[in-house]
Design a protein that fits this description.
Structural class of chain A: alpha/beta
InterPro entries (chain A): GH57_Enzymes, Glyco_hydro/deAcase_b/a-brl, Glyco_hydro_57_N
Shape of chain A: globular
Largest sheet of chain A: 5 strands, parallel
Number of domains of chain A: 2
CATH class of the largest domain in chain A: Alpha Beta
Pfam families (chain A): Glyco_hydro_57
CATH architecture of the largest domain in chain A: Alpha-Beta Barrel
Protein name (chain A): Alpha-amylase
Number of strands of chain A: 10
Number of domains of chain B: 2
Number of helices of chain B: 16
CATH class of the largest domain in chain B: Alpha Beta
CATH topology of the largest domain in chain B: Rossmann fold
Helix content of chain B: 40-55%
Structural class of chain B: alpha/beta
Radius of gyration of chain B: 22 Å
Shape of chain B: elongated
Strand content of chain B: 5-15%
Helix content of chain A: 40-55%
Family (chain A): Belongs to the glycosyl hydrolase 57 family.
Number of helices of chain A: 16
Oligomer: heterodimer
CATH architecture of the largest domain in chain B: 3-Layer(aba) Sandwich
Distance between the termini of chain B: 19 Å
Order of helices and strands of chain A: EHEHHEHEHEHEEHHEHEHEHHHHHH
Strand order of the largest sheet of chain B: 3-2-1-4-5-6-7
Radius of gyration of chain A: 21 Å
Distance between the termini of chain A: 63 Å
GO molecular function, one term (chain A): catalytic activity
């Protein structure tokens, strides 16, 4: 069985409002409701609604042969409930077709896997509950960590939580001569299967589709089919992993991205020996070839495919450490408001905005950042965090007295 | 006495301390019934009517006057493409000049129109405006001969002062509020230095805002000591401000407020903060302001892992400045080179104890403050710690500081200025 596995990441962070030093100790609401709502509404119009409609059309047209997979961050689902119930409904309709698989991830789209096993497990549980609640008791069996961050240890942790598979990047420096188009195993716990993103073909769609300076521009379905057919017959799985916002948001409708996707399934059926599967089907049907060793965490971001988009410079490390030193105290409070803010403050995007890698990937970073500079992002985050610390400490003190 | 005074800005339209000082001085002189013709490149119309204001933008120049040609000839060296903006650090300055070089329009024709609309700002045509201002000054000096002495504030108006002196033959007092060495450290801009030096040399008497500045004038500009008098700044209002604004954090607050540039020594404040926080985590440090070193300070604070206790507010204006003083428990001004430095006096008005560097002019007049060398971060940390923890000393500073303020009045400054005027007039050949 040769198969294509489409997985789309759907995530929106809770962006912080401009929060000044003078607000510390007084204003305890941190989120930019107006901005967050406008982003959701804008992306809903450009991407979520039209692309959901297209996927539904394709699923119905191909009678169970075309399948896709989603992972929704908790912060995304919360914002759908608040700002875009219409979008939530259209996702629910898709899932109800039975041709759509959902994955679990950390609720807050956090980097907790790198810092705290307890917090990580807690966020996964929270995410399971939310998916169950919104999608008619759905229970995912495969896991996707924030930004496809993966290492042997993270894999083992995920296996302990009962998952049979995990998705990550087919990073060049990890694979070496090996191909991403096979199923691998975690090197600590072989029960956990590892699916690797074929970054060349994924990024051809996600990043290069409308790039006029790219030698293969324009990307047509025929061209893409030729590349799929060029994959050696022994290689079984083609993992096309990308942000869902690729469709209509990163690549606008005018680029022809929707037409490309509309034509693709039929062309695959007609001209290749590939079908479409979801991650759990792949894991059930395709045997693993070997363990994959990832001692140092990888991700799907930037040219380096490492963690440097979120961690590593002084701004990011300082913010990250100050945040996680609060973990024990926050949990002690059991206060729902504090828990929610704690959750949203962990979202990886806050650290992404503080990235100073201007020269190689700066343009992608600045596209996604609501701040002018990483320094602005850092100051704003630290002001908010300072207020959060005061609230947490106040609450803990109150509990100790009581 | 009637004084023809050349400034560059006047409240409420100011971008630096120069305008405030001119305002205080004019107000003080009014107290002694001195008549002042105050010339600024651009008047906005909402200035307090303390003087006979002349808007340089309204003055027409008569080019038939031959003497003007001579003045113009002496000024043309200003026309070299120097894009000078005072109060910019080296990095900002570079950014600015890169921009201006590609955006330069030729200046000749605009200079020789009969009227010239000054921006009165510190913009890219600054040198052009300084030259043109001098020409206007010559015209004013010819039109009005009802003054006895000329008083020019800082290098921007020195060419104007020189031109007015040449046309009228009246004595010139050059008032130095800051030198190029204060603004740029060792990377001095030659054209500015030359104007400053020419102004001081042409002047019959030079005023310095502090002994510190007087020393620079003597040592770096070669002006004889007996030609220079010290005229300290003062405060417009010495009353204690009782703010209703309350602090919202439990910790004590230590504040730096000013431009984040080389001259102000922000890096010493950051290093001292680290030393204090290592000893006492229950303190918050605030760096309020903006400038070319801001990002470097943020990096350093993050590197020292103290960002949850060290905050940046960005540029503050209006009430926020008062709020900041009001909630501060200690105010620190670690300037590397500060001709005077009025902000510690503002802090005293808010009953906030201050730590100031010995390299500031204000250290010469403020007795009840802790004075340290800007580079001595151990002493700075010690002093911060002491003011935060030993109530006796901060209480004493609060009481004595407010007493002291009452002595720092512009009236007293003006009285001294009048004697300088009189001496200058009487010693003229």
């Amino acid at each position: 069985m040769r198969t294509i596995c489409f997985y789309f990441q759907v995530h929106q962070p809770y962006r912080l409002k401009p929060y000044r030093f003078f607000d510390i100790g007084e204003d305890h609401y941190y989120w930019d409701d107006f901005l967050n709502r406008s982003v959701i509404r804008k992306v809903a119009q450009k991407c979520y609604l039209p692309m959901n409609a297209l996927l539904l059309e394709l699923i119905q047209k191909h009678h169970g042969a075309f399948k896709v997979t989603f992972s929704f961050s908790g912060t995304f689902m919360d914002q759908l409930e608040a700002y875009a119930p219409d979008v939530l409904e259209s996702f629910q309709r898709l899932v109800a077709t039975g041709q759509v698989e959902l994955l679990n991830e950390t609720y807050g789209h956090s980097l907790a896997a790198l810092k705290s096993k307890e917090e990580f497990a807690g966020m996964v549980k929270q995410h399971q509950d939310k998916i169950k609640q919104l999608f008619n008791g759905y229970q995912p069996k495969v896991f996707r960590n924030t930004e496809l961050i993966y290492s042997d240890k993270i894999g083992a942790m995920v296996a302990d939580l009962g998952y049979k598979g995990i998705l990550t990047e087919g990073a060049k420096h990890v694979l070496g001569w090996k191909s991403p188009n096979y199923v691998y195993q975690n090197s600590i716990n072989p029960d956990l299967k590892v699916l690797l993103k074929n970054f060349r073909l994924s990024d051809d769609i996600a990043f290069r589709f409308s790039n006029k300076t790219w030698e293969d521009y324009p990307l047509t379905t025929d061209k893409f089919i030729n590349w799929i057919n060029a994959i050696p017959q022994s290689e079984q799985v083609l993992n096309l992993f990308m942000d869902y916002e690729t469709f209509g948001e990163h690549q606008w409708a005018e680029t022809g991205i929707f037409d490309f996707m509309r034509a693709l399934p039929e062309a695959v059926f007609k001209h290749t020996n590939f079908g479409f599967s979801t991650p759990s089907e792949v894991i059930d049907k395709v045997p693993a070839v070997s363990p994959i060793h990832v001692p140092i965490p990888i991700s799907w971001a930037d040219e380096e495919r490492d963690l440097t988009a979120w961690l590593g410079n002084d701004l990011q490390d300082e913010a990250f450490d100050r945040l996680y030193e609060l973990e024990a105290m926050v949990k002690k409070t059991k206060d729902p408001d504090l828990m929610r803010d704690w959750n949203y403050l962990q979202t990886s995007d806050h650290f992404y905005y503080m990235c100073t890698k201007f020269f190689s990937d700066g343009d992608i970073h600045s596209y996604f950042s609501p701040y002018d500079t990483p320094y602005d992002a850092f100051i704003n985050y630290m002001n908010v965090l300072s207020d959060f610390v005061l609230r947490v400490k106040g609450k803990v003190k109150g509990l100790e007295k009581a | 006495m009637k004084v023809l005074m050349f400034g560059w800005e006047f409240p409420p339209h100011i971008s630096g301390g120069l305008g405030t000082a001119c305002y205080g001085l004019v107000k003080g002189l009014a107290h002694y019934n001195q008549d002042i013709i105050f010339v600024v490149p651009k008047l906005w119309g909402d200035e307090e009517p303390l003087a006979d204001f002349v808007n340089a933008s309204d003055v027409s120049i008569d080019y038939r006057e031959r003497k003007f040609k001579k003045i113009w000839k002496n000024l043309t060296y200003l026309e070299v493409s120097s894009f000078l903006v005072p109060y910019l650090g080296p990095e900002e300055y570079k950014k600015f000049t890169d921009y201006a070089i590609h955006d330069r329009t030729d200046v000749d024709e605009s200079i020789f129109t009969t009227k010239y609309e000054f921006s009165g700002k510190y913009g890219k045509n600054l040198m052009e405006e300084v030259s043109r201002y001098a020409l206007t000054a010559a015209q004013i000096a010819r039109d009005r001969d009802d003054f006895e002495i000329i008083h020019a504030h800082d290098w921007l108006s020195f060419p104007a002062g020189i031109a007015a002196k040449e046309i009228s033959g009246k004595p010139l007092v050059a008032h130095v509020h800051a030198t190029e060495f204060d603004r740029s450290g060792q990377s001095v801009n030659r054209p500015v230095y030359d104007i400053e030096k020419a102004g001081m040399e042409a002047a019959d008497h030079v005023l310095a805002v502090s002994q510190l500045t007087k020393n620079i004038i003597i040592n770096k500009y070669g002006i004889p000591a007996e030609k220079v008098s010290v005229l300290h700044n003062a405060v417009l209002d010495a009353s204690i401000i009782k703010s209703k604004y309350n602090k919202k954090v439990p910790e004590k607050i230590v504040t730096f407020l000013g431009r984040i540039t080389f001259q102000k020594g922000p890096e010493y404040f950051v290093e001292a903060a680290k030393k204090v926080l290592d000893r006492d985590p229950n303190v918050r440090f605030v760096m309020a302001g903006s400038g070319d070193l801001l990002n470097r300070m943020i990096d350093r604070v993050a590197e020292l892992r103290m960002a949850s206790k060290f905050h940046f507010t960005g540029f503050l204006k209006g009430d926020d400045v008062d709020h900041m003083y009001a909630i501060s428990d200690v105010y620190v001004m670690p300037s590397v080179s500060e001709p005077f430095g009025i902000s510690p006096l503002e802090a005293v008005r808010h009953n906030t104890p201050v730590i100031i560097s010995k390299q500031s002019g204000v250290a010469e007049v403020l007795v009840n403050a802790i004075k340290i060398d800007f580079w001595d971060i151990d002493a700075m940390a010690d002093s911060i710690f002491a003011l935060l923890h030993y109530d006796g000393i901060s209480r004493m500073f609060k009481e004595m500081g407010s007493q002291e303020l009452k002595k720092l009045k512009w009236e007293h400054v003006a009285a001294k200025l009048v004697t300088v005027y009189e001496k200058t007039l009487s010693t003229r050949p």
